[in-house]
Design brief:
By secondary structure, this protein is mainly α. It is built from five helices and no strands. The chain has helices at residues 2-9, 14-46, 57-84, 90-113, 125-152. The N and C termini lie far apart (52 Å).
């Protein structure tokens, strides 16, 4: 899925991609995480005696929410305006890519804690809904990271100058 998404956005205007990321990932993550944290706390409270209870999931999701909120604010306030202006600052981009690596590690912990997002047999509706939500978060965040790393953060390659359009050797006259 990520490769198809990357190809879809490869030639899109930077401002259009930024708006897509803001609407379809940043805002969505800000809605997803509080709901998942609340649901995880409920499951941990109600099913704490169950062998497969995801103990610590609410804390992990809270950690993810804090990390993502900080990361997204830096993008929105600093990096995205620069990119929209055609400036591709290597330092801030490197910091964001490093943080993306940290997000990937959090996603790995999330997958392990939720048994790859598979609720146990006989799980209640809330537990199933929690794991469906964490699966969606994992998928969304991976797409989000891929779009930024592979498309948004890559400076467009300047096309070769064309004779008659960008320069003239003098023989045209």
């Amino acid at each position: 899925m990520s490769q198809q998404l990357i190809q879809q956005w490869q030639d899109a205007p930077v401002n259009e991609l930024i708006q897509h990321i803001l609407a379809n990932y940043h805002e969505k993550h800000r809605r997803q995480l509080p709901e998942l944290i609340q649901l995880a706390r409920k499951i941990e409270d109600v099913h704490n005696d169950h062998q497969e209870c995801p103990v610590g999931l609410a804390d992990l999701l809270s950690e993810m929410a804090n990390e993502l909120d900080s990361h997204m604010m830096k993008e929105e306030q600093i990096l995205f305006p620069m990119l929209a202006g055609g400036i591709y600052p290597s330092g801030p981009i490197a910091v964001m890519e490093e943080e993306h690596g940290e997000h990937e590690q959090l996603l790995e912990r999330l997958a392990n804690l939720t048994h790859q997002g598979k609720a146990p047999r006989g799980a209640c509706g809330s537990w199933i809904m929690l794991y469906e939500g964490t699966n969606e978060l994992m998928s969304d965040l991976r797409e989000h990271i891929a779009l930024e790393n592979e498309v948004l953060f890559r400076e467009p390659v300047a096309s070769a100058p064309q004779h008659g359009k960008d320069f003239c050797c003098g023989s045209c006259q």
